[in-house]
Amino acid sequence: MKTNQLFKKKTTLSFEVFPPKSTTPVESIYQTIDGLSALEPDFISVTYGAGGGTNNATIGICDAIKHKYGIEAVAHLPCINLTREEVLSELAEMKSAGIENILALRGDINPNIPPKNEFHYASELVELIRENGDFNIIGACYPEGHPEAPSMVEDLRHLKEKVDAGCSQLISQLFFDNEDFYAFREKTAIAGIDVPIEAGIMPVTNRRQIERMVTLCHAKLPKKFITIMEKYEHDPIAMRDAGIAYAVSQIVDLLANDIDGIHLYTMNNPYIAEKICSAVASLFRSKSDNA
Ligand code: FAD
């Protein structure tokens, strides 16, 4: 099923997982998926080489999510370190695995891996995918603006180009201040971007995660968030519970404000996903409930 069809019927809940490191057997991911599938998400997306590397575990994991667990799968596909031929080969592999949904990305630029220079922006990948198969194409978006963009206006202009190239759905970068998301939602509407946007929520449950997010995603940390994290950073259990509570409070507010869906960055941790989902399960609505 193409995941963009879901938004007509309901507010969605999706999860993101990453493949195990190459030193760990790929099968270890199935313990994570066992736990996550019990929470009945609308789809699970699987990252690809985040940090700039390439790996080929993504398609196999998506295949299992879809055919073994019966949950719709989204394969991430970053293009910066791939040639056109390599992308076409990935698309052929996805097609034969029955994968229908692709998150088309430029990819993180890793200073240690020179880009192949055949793709410069995700919109070029979106066009190639559109011309080579019947996939539902999803794009990434940035409520605080992409860190490399000279301005929010420029970033929105390029986001509109990406959507016009063939994206039918967007998933946002993580954020900690919902007001940033609401302001972004208004700006996308003004820019004529009219596809559903899932809000990316990352439960922060340890100090290392915060540092990584600030360097990699450039996420702004609101004062309220910093106060909580500073208070509990040396108490792992309290820090975990505070991170879960913060994510729950963000999701409650987002759902009350009629967002299209929640995309939970699970960090492959079903325990945390379960705590969050059980706290908000009754708040998700089908579209007929709102009528
Ligand atoms: P683009 O849409 O190409 O945008 C990148 C920058 O280029 C922006 O500043 C944009 O404004 C600018 N731009 C776009 N078009 C033009 C143009 N024509 N001219 C000038 N400037 C332009 N990375 C991975 O490696 N693997 C993953 O699995 C992964 N999963 C992700 C999942 C989500 C939900 C998100 C939000 C990000 C993910 N990333 C992943 C990170 C992503 O690859 C990086 O954020 C990357 O820096 C940008 O990717 P993009 O697809 O948004 O790029």
User: Low-confidence parts, pLDDT < 50 over ≥5 residues?
Assistant: none
Spatial order of strands in the largest sheet? 1-2-3-4-5-6-7-8
Bound molecules: flavin-adenine dinucleotide
Largest sheet: 8 strands, parallel, barrel
Structural class label: alpha/beta
According to DSSP, the number of beta strands is 8
Percentage of residues assigned to helices: 40-55%
- Give the overall shape, derived from the CA principal axes: globular
Radius of gyration: 18 Å
Distance between the termini: 25 Å
Query: Total helix count?
Result: 11
Percent in strands: 15-25%
Average pLDDT, all residues: 94
Series of secondary-structure elements, N-terminal to C-terminal? EHEHEHEHEHEHEHHHEHH
Sequence-ordered SSE layout with sheet pairings:
Blueprint: E1 12-17, H1 29-37, E2 43-46, H2 57-67, E3 72-78, H3 84-96, E4 101-105, H4 122-131, E5 136-141, H5 152-166, E6 169-174, H6 178-190, E7 197-201, H7 207-217, H8 223-232, H9 236-256, E8 261-265, H10 270-280, H11 287-290
Parallel strand pairs: 1-2, 1-8, 2-3, 3-4, 4-5, 5-6, 6-7, 7-8
Helix pairs in contact: 1-10, 4-5, 8-9, 9-10
The structure holds flavin-adenine dinucleotide.
